[in-house]
Design brief:
By secondary structure, this protein is an all-alpha fold. Helix content is about 85%, strand content about 0%. It is globular. The two termini are about 45 Å apart.
Length: about 525
Amino acid sequence: MTFSVDNKKIAKNTVVLYMRQILIMMISLYTSRVILNTLGADDYGIYSVVGGFVTMFNVISGAFTVAISRFMQYVIGEGNDKKLKELFSTAIVVQCCVGLFILLLLIIGGIWYVTNIMVLPDGRMVAALWVLFFSAITFFIGLISVPYNSLIVAHEHMKAYAYIAILEAVMRLGVAFSIKITPIDSLITYSFLMMLTSVTVRFCYSVYCNKNFTGCHFSLRIHKSLLKEMMSFVGWAFLGNGAITLRNQGTSMIMNLFGGTIVNAARGIAQQVNNAVASFANNFIQATQPEITKLKATNQLAEMRKLVYRSCRISYFLMVLICVPLIKNIDYVLQIWLGEVPDNTDVFVVMTLVETMVSAMGNPLIYGVLAVGEIKVYEILLSIICTLELPVNYLILNAGFSPVYIYFVIVFDSFIILLLLIWQSKTYKMTFSEFFMNVGIRSIAITAISAAIALSMNFDVIDISFLRFLLESVVIVMLNGLAIMFIGFTKDERLKVIAEVRKKMGFYLNATSA
């Protein structure tokens, strides 16, 4: 059995996810400003730290999430409907059991952390505990939604995925306005309404999957052979996911010890910006991930490598187009967005975006490694790299250095992890030299050109700040786009893009003349 890469489907799904993300980003950025102004920096910091503590338990659930997504895409690539139904039922039972176990750990461990370790402003202990409780329930709901989300992505029904995500963003906007008028504690109300939003979204996913997929038929049983197959994968994925989660949340906790909730607020804002920007590249990867896995399922390794190379470059180029104008004007963007900006937020955002640009190049490599399934060595080395960050970060802050230096460590480690991913991709016969020739050279060239373009842009003669920002951004994006077209893309890719543009323009001209 062979599987043909459907480039048109990838492009169509990417466009759908992009349109969804543009709308979601606009809503999310405005929502974040409303929430920050309503809650204040201290309460916003509390929500970031406590929510991050809950997220830390992805150390347990994240491995199952990765395994379920990978196996569903693999089974669909094989065309085995019976096995897909068995996998879905097994995944639901496993996620419910794991979720209840995590919920118990969250309540016990969270209460101890909030009451004994966390640095809180006076009188906010009770509010922090309510945030913990509602965040834990939200986490559980999201966990049992994973098999449904995985089905939608594996079947590449991106329109449904986009519509439900837009609904979630609109509901979050409603939550932001609701906390402005509530007579109850704003932080507690915010956490409660976010939980209700998760319940609604979970219901939408369930209804859609039951109506559209034959594999979405639940039976209360675990298929032992499938569970055994998944558990061998989960064990090593658990190690890597746990190390990443421990690094991220551990860093937030260390920063809280030395800088309090204000520093956490700055880190939380940086993460908000990063999540919005990174999601653009992630949307493209989400559209290509099923194709990568299905190519491995049909043992088409040469085609798989070509798709991974192309995905690495495009993922990185998308981040360059978005991040470079944002980095150049970060002070203006934060001021317009937030009004009052916590200290160090600008540097935190810039360094986080740089780290994400590097990671964007490596994301397709991750899905290639996961598709093969030989992840033992990679997960061990990844866990060592991530875990070593924590003592280094503690020593940096304990020595009296600014929290900014922590981000230099994070960026450095992102390069090390990229090299590790390239090395581990030997499992589907990729080599360093091939990666450098197909991805590295073009990416380095685009980075140098993009930096030169941004540094040379100067529209200070324009007095209106917004107009200056808009003009600079448009010019940078257009020039970078041309560089990507003629230097970043291969000749075949460039010709395909030009042919598709001509086709669309011809269709438009014929339609208007008629």
